[in-house]
Amino acid sequence: MRKVAIALSKGGVGKSTTAVNLAAALAQRQRRILLIDMDTQGQLARMLNIAPTHTVADVVSGEAPLKDAIIEARPGVDLLAGGRGLAGLKRAIDRKEFGGEQTLSEALAALDARYDYVIVDTAPGWDVLTVNALFFVEEVLTPVALEVLALQGLQEFMRSLAAIRRYHPRLTLRYILPTFFDRRVRKSDEILQQLRQHFPAQLCHPIRYNVRLSEAPGYGQTIFEYAVTSTGAEDYRLLAERVLNDEHTQTNA
């Protein structure tokens, strides 16, 4: 079972879009996926048109068993939803004198091994929920919007990641995913080349700017349900292929 966090401190880079559509693309390849939403906004449930009864906060607090909180969102894709309850969980973790960073890992220790992938969507910023998510997973996929200061934001995130790796050495920045790529914008291509120069091993095929990707969540659909022939669908299929190709070659950076 591979555990992957979709993470970057900066918002608006396509983390939730990537979590949902990568999960859908992997499910199309007969993999079993669990999506976990660690954002107080609870966007994944809305993007998938799901009304959860329980959330990850309820599981961690002991108010609901894991099996009751997990919802089948799509064939092959289950969801453990986020939401406002995570704000209370943040406060509870902050009050812990020791081991707060392991709170999520301890709560999900009995996670069913029937999943091939657990994909954790994190909130913008850097807080105890993001730290918990990173201690829980072993791989990080970082979406980077191809805009000015993109490299600066990535470098700042990598410094924070390095601090986690001192205590969780198995954690690796496995994938860097360029998003909002638009060949009509010269700066977009320039930033992509910079990423290729600095991160040749981690860099994935970019997600091209595609209005269908921004429209799909409004209809509670994945890109494969909303616009299966779009460039957005094609790009997320390519991302899934990249991830699948690494199933038997996992290494720690």
Fraction of residues in H or I helices = 40-55%
Arithmetic mean pLDDT:
91
Question: What is the gyration radius calculated from CA atoms?
Answer: 17 Å
CATH architecture: 3-Layer(aba) Sandwich
**How many DSSP helices?**
12
Provide the structure class. alpha/beta
Low-confidence stretches: none
What's the order of the H and E elements? EHEHHHEEHHEHEHEHHHH
By CATH reckoning, the class would read Alpha Beta
- Describe the global form: globular
How many strands? 7
According to CATH, the fold-level topology is Rossmann fold
| Largest β sheet strand count, sense and barrel closure | 7 strands, mixed
Describe the oligomeric state of these chains in a short phrase: single chain
CATH superfamily descriptor: P-loop containing nucleotide triphosphate hydrolases
Number of domains: 1
What portion of residues belong to β-strands?
15-25%
Distance, first to last CA: 19 Å
Strand order of the largest sheet: 3-4-2-5-1-6-7
Fold and architecture overview:
Strands 3-4-2-5-1-6-7 form a seven-stranded mixed beta sheet, with helices on both faces. The chain has 253 residues and is α/β, with parallel strands linked by helices. The two termini are 19 Å apart. A hairpin with a 2-residue loop joins strand 3 and strand 4. The mean pLDDT is 91. The chain has a single domain (2-245), classed as 3-Layer(aba) Sandwich (Rossmann fold). It contains twelve helices and seven strands. Helix 1 crosses helix 12. The longest helix is centred in the middle third of the chain and has 16 residues, at 150-165.
